[in-house]
Amino acid sequence: MCTGKCARFVGLSLIPLSLVCIVANALLLVPNAKTTWTKDHLSLQVWLMAGFIGGGLMVLCPGIAAVRAGGKGCCGAGCCGNRCRMLRSVFCSAFGMLGAIYCLSVSGAGLRTGPKCFMNGSWGYHFEETAGSYLLNRTQWSLCVEPPGVVYWNVTLFSLLVAASCLEILLCGVQLVNACIGVFCGDCRKEGARQ
Questions:
Q1: CB of 15 closer than 8 Å to CB of 65
Q2: Three-class SS state of 194
Q3: Nearest C-alpha neighbor of 142 from the set 115, 107, 112
Q4: Membrane-crossing residues (predicted)?
Q5: The whole model's pTM is what?
Q6: Which residues form the domain of 24?
Q7: Alpha-carbon distance 18 to 24, whole Å?
Q8: How many structural domains compose the chain?
C-alpha cells in the first residue's frame, strides 16, 4: 500500500474515533442523562476530560493531518511527493499518540477507581479499595444509590474510551511509521491518482 493511501485510511479512521471519545466524555458529565449530579458528584477522572482533550481533540489533529497527507502534494501537483505534509503528519501523529495515551491512562484509572457515588450514607469513591474487582461483581453495583445507574454508566463509557484510545494509539503508531517512510521515499502513487 502506498504511503498516501495508507495515510488517508488512517486519517479517516482516526477522525470518527476522536469524535466517539468526545461524545463519550460529554456523556460522562451527565450521569444517567441528567445534570442533577454534575456540580459536585462526578469523579476526578471525568473532570480530567481525557476523552474530550486527549482522545478527542489531540487525536483529531493527526487524523486531519493524515487525510491531508494522503492528498495532493504541498505544491498543488504533488511535485515533492507529499514529503512536506508527511513531515507534518509525523509530528501530529506523535502528538496524537500522547493524547491517546493520556486518554487510556485516565480512563483506565476511572475504571479501576470506580465512580463517585452515594453509598452507606456518604459520598465517595466506595469501590477504590477493590482495585477494580468490583467490575466482576455486578451485585455491588446496585449499592450505589445516587446517581442511579452511575456504575453502569461509568463502566460502559470508560470502557468505550479505553477501547477507542487503544485503537488510536495503534493507528497513530502506524501513521507515525508510514509518515516517516513518506518523508524519505515520497508518495508512490501516480500523479493522476492523487486527489
A1: no
A2: coil
A3: 115
A4: 9-30, 42-69, 90-111, 157-185
A5: 0.85
A6: 3-31+42-190
A7: 10
A8: 1
